[in-house]
Structure formats: C-alpha cells, structure tokens
Amino acid sequence: MARKFLLCFHDFSVWNYQKMLPVLEQLKDLAGAPFSILVIPDTEKAPPEAVDGFREALSQLKDDGFDLALHGYKHRAEFSQGRSYAGLIAMNLTHGEAEFAGLSEYESSRILHAGIDAWNKLFGDSTTKPSAFIPPTWYSNKFLPSQVHAEKMIYEDRYAIVTAKRKRYASPVASFAGIPNFLVNPAFRFGEFIQKIPFGLPRIALHPVDFPQHEKAIHNLIRAALGCGRKLTRYKDL
Ligand SMILES: [Zn+2]
Hints:
This protein is of the alpha/beta class. Helix content is 39%, strand content 16%. Strands 1, 2, 3, 8, 9 and 10 form a six-stranded parallel β-sheet that branches. A four-stranded mixed β-sheet has the order 4-5-6-7, covered by helices on one side. α6 (184-196) packs parallel to α7 (215-227). It is globular and about 45 Å long. Residues 10-11, 71, 75, 136 line the site of zinc ion.
C-alpha cells in the first residue's frame, strides 16, 4: 500500500469562506487533488446572504471532490456547561475554543447533535453526510468518540484517527496556528519529519490564520510530502 497523508483545512465557516475559497483552490492545484475541509456549521448570527453564499460554496466544493468534515458546532463555547476540571483548563489554554473539552455525557451529545443539525440545515438534505468529526482544538471528553462512532463518522483526536468500524490509524499532526512564534519553525520541521518516517498517516492541519502568513512554508511542506512519495488521501477514502 502506498504511503499516504492527509491535508486538512480547519475552521471553514460562514465568516471566512469568501476569503478562503481562492486559498483552497491554490492548495488544490499544488496538492494535485481536492483534500479535506473541516466545516464549522453554525450560521446563527450570520446575515442571510452570507448563509446562502456559504451554502453555494459548500456545494461547489463538494462537486469539486473536496472531502467535507464536521468540526464542532460553534467552535466556541460557554464555560457554564458542567465541564471537568481538565476541561476548564483546556478551555483556558485555547481561549474558549475547546468546545467539547471535559463535557458531561449529556452535554457532549447535545452539542454534537446541535452540530449535526446545523450541518443538515446547511446542506438542506440528508445525503451529504460529514466524512469525519473533529472536535475543535482536539480537546475532548471520554464520551465523544463513541458518540461520534454511533453516528457512523470517523473520529479524530490529536494522535489518531479511528473509523466508525474502529480501524485505527496512528496519525501525527503538524499544525501552525495558535502557537508562539518561536515554535512555528520547529512545527514545520516536525511536519516534514512525520512525512518521512515510514509509518503512520501524517496530517497537515491548516487554519485560516495561516494565510498569507505561512503560505510559502505550507506550500513547501506539501511539496515535501508529495516529494517523499506520499499520496494525498481524504477521510472519506479511509
Ligand atoms: Zn478548529
């Protein structure tokens, strides 16, 4: 089996889709194929024109072969949801972005389903299912993996990807957003390293804030992944 890697664009939302579409196109040209996009489905506070445009963008991306995955509900969360102490620490570390961190079983299920409902509303049909579920910032709780699998979706955490049939891939990830400046270069070196080691399914996780700031380094990293013989894959192909 040829060695593979995943290219995952995080946090695609109603608030940034216009700006990000050209970035996605450029990455697609460079990677030679459409890749995985992690969608924040909540559009509650967006103006109706923006929601319509976002819908169109998503259906275009789907038609172009992009792999669409579900990335939480709002991506931001309130503190008052009965989180564990570890969950509160994760929320603090991520400035409130760790939507699922340390939630109770009930709250975790409630927010997961709010995300699925928002997704279904956005796509307006039940034929477009998310290929995977990735909790924002990868912080989670002990109930979420089985709740996601019960919905027949792939679950991803920081170190691994587990399909609904419980096939597990060790999957190191290189990510560049939200880290201090002095760690950005080491993160890119780590990104190259995980492509070169002969095992695992490495991921390159990109965020809107990486562009245009790290664009050049990201392009080089994708070239390096392809250059060492890895082929691009998508959640839906796992
Ligand atoms: Zn995210």
